[in-house]
Amino acid sequence: MRSKAAVCECACVLVDAQLLKLARRLLGRYLFERLMKATFYGHFVAGEDVARIRPLVQRNMSFGVKSILDYSVEKDISREEARAAELAYVLLTLPL
After folding, report:
1. Rounded to an integer, what distance in angstroms lies between the CA atom of residue 18 and that of residue 15?
2. Arithmetic mean of pLDDT, 68-92
3. Cβ–Cβ under 8 Å, residues 67 and 57
4. pLDDT tens track for 37-52
5. What is the SS3 string spanning the chain?
6. If phi over 0 gives left and psi between -120 and 50 gives alpha, with beta otherwise, what is residue 88?
7. Cβ count within 10 A of residue 56
8. How far is CA 58 from CA 16, 21, 63, in A?
9. Are 46 and 53 in contact (CB under 8 A)?
């Protein structure tokens, strides 16, 4: 049952990626970015750089809410490149 859920989840991610590509192409960069920031992206992403992140972090701190900042980069790569990168990461992090 768990594997079926994983397959379903992967299929949804692929559909979402295709929809995002279509929306980006149809709306253009500016409108697409505005739309994304008004939806889930804007809810979870504080900003693209320190200047945009700092005011939100300070505002949250004024309410006693701490932030966890993560750096994320996406790149379209082939399945083989992804497997090689994952294997290299796993080998580097294994205790020897």
Report:
1. 5
2. 80
3. yes
4. 888 777 778 887 788 8
5. CHHHHHHHHHHHHHHHHHHHHHHHHHHHHHHHHHHHHCCHHHHHCCCCCHHHHHHHHHHHHHCCCCCCCCCCCCCCCCHHHHHHHHHHHHHHHCCC
6. alpha
7. 13
8. 33, 34, 9
9. yes
Please, are residues 42 and 36 in contact by the beta-carbon 8 Å criterion?
A: yes
Instruction: Locate the domains of the chain by residue range.
Output: 1-45
Answer for the pair 32, 39: CB distance below 8 angstroms, yes or no. no
CA 61 from centroid of its chain's CA atoms: 24
Query: Which tokens go with 53?
Result: 């992140």
